Amino acid sequence: MSGSFDDNAYLGTIQKGINAVRGLRFGLSVGSGSKEENIARLKDELASADAIVIGAGAGLSTAAGLTYSGERFERYFFDFKEIFGITDMYSGGFYPFPDDETRWAWWARHIYYNRYIDPPKPVYCDLLRLVKDKDYFVITTNVDHQFQRAGFDKKRLFYTQGDYGLFQTVNGRNGKTYDNRDWVIRAMAAQRFIPDENGVFEVPEDRLISMRIPTEQIPRCPDDRSAVTMNLRSDDTFVEDAGWHEASKRYADFLKAHEGRHVLYLELGVGANTPTIIKYPFWALTIENPNAVYACINYGEAFCPKQIEKWSILINGDIAEIIEAI
Fold first, then answer.
1. What are the start-end ranges of the H helices in 116-224?
2. What is the spatial distance between Cα 57 and Cα 305, in angstroms, rounded to a whole number?
3. Model pLDDT for residues 259-304, shown as the tens digit of each residue
4. Same domain? 212 vs 300
5. The domain spanning residue 46 has which CATH number?
6. Residues 227, 247, 158, 288: what is their CA dihedral angle, to the nearest 10 degrees?
7. Of 263, 233, 273, whose CA–CA distance to 59 is shortest?
8. DSSP summary character for residue 227
């Protein structure tokens, strides 16, 4: 592999992608052919490829119905909207709440409704059916754990940006992460959410829920009782724990093992926020390997360098509909 990387595939592929983008001289392409023709091409590639590397961004979870605004937000966060004027889950994560009891009530809901329930639409399960009998690996910037919930092999997943299901210490110095499921369940119950017949927490009929958790339920590090925060990459305090590094090594090993072979780099819903982690490296890996194919499914953002136009499948549309069509 030209400009190969060590076991830290995260940094290695990012650098590879940046180098490739710096060297682009021919502009970008939105591809050719009809949507139907490109769906047929992708179906053939899924069947014939020696290996498939899936790169998933936020657009995939959006296609699965895990939206951060609209009806879902209004259903579960109506009180936060009324009192604080928050209009979506993403911006709420940055809101300066008046106290920790309120802040952690928010985060308990945010985590629960994006990490511990199945998505409204079966997109992840449909995707698994397409690749389960293939040699595949998944790299994703999503932190909602939906690949594992759908049944993807844990050893074939690399969550680069963290996990809603994990806490870490605020400064991250001990290098550890802590599972938060039990805490989330207690915090949801403390806000008076009620489990339905399937055990999923819902707003009670009287809509009388609390926007605070008891002070004694504010999460603490189990080792030293210090403050914790979400294990989400936002600065250099983000903890890349032992599991993270093992996944990074497995990704590096997978890429090395399939060097020069017929590899399909399948990019799903990767937007402009984090192109250096998936999009640019996929371009670079396709440029390096004449047997590789790059495929991108994205609503309004399906494009590639003209340098790999002939080896690319670009489909502008809803991921759920296209996967169903395949």
1. 123-131, 146-150, 181-190
2. 19
3. 999 999 999 999 988 899 999 999 999 999 999 999 999 998 999 9
4. no
5. 3.40.50.1220
6. 140
7. 273
8. B
Per-residue pLDDT tens over the stretch 180-224: 999 999 999 999 999 999 999 999 999 999 999 999 999 999 999
Distance in angstroms (rounded) separating the CA atoms of residues 264 and 31 = 17
The rounded distance, in Å, linking the Cα atoms of 77 and 45 is 42
pLDDT at residue 4 tops 60: no
Q: Determine the residue type at 181.
A: R
Question: CA-CA-CA-CA torsion for 152, 157, 162, 165, nearest 10 degrees?
Answer: 30
The CA distance from 266 to 262, in Å, is 13
Domain hosting 288: range is: 9-63+120-160+241-325
Q: What is the pLDDT of residue 2?
A: 46
Report which of 130, 117, 128 is spatially closest to residue 156, judged by C-alpha positions: 128
Give domain status of residue 112, yes or no. Answer: yes
Cα 297 from Cα 316, distance rounded (Å): 6
Q: How far is CA 43 from the centre of its chain?
A: 23
As a whole number of angstroms, the distance between CA 293 and CA 19 comes to 19
Asked whether residue 253 falls in the same domain as residue 134, the answer is yes
Q: Are residues 104 and 185 in the same domain?
A: yes
pTM for this structure?
0.95
Residue closest to 143 by CA, chosen among 220, 233, 227: 233
Q: Look at residue 2 and tell me if it is in a domain.
A: no
Number of domains in the chain: 2
| 220 secondary structure, DSSP code | B
CA distance 105 to 137: 35
Q: CA–CA distance from 142 to each of 102, 122, 139, 199, 261 (Å)?
A: 25, 16, 9, 25, 27
Residues 266 and 308 in one domain: yes
Q: Which two tokens stand for residue 201?
A: 């927490």
**Tokens of residue 95, six digits:** 């809101």
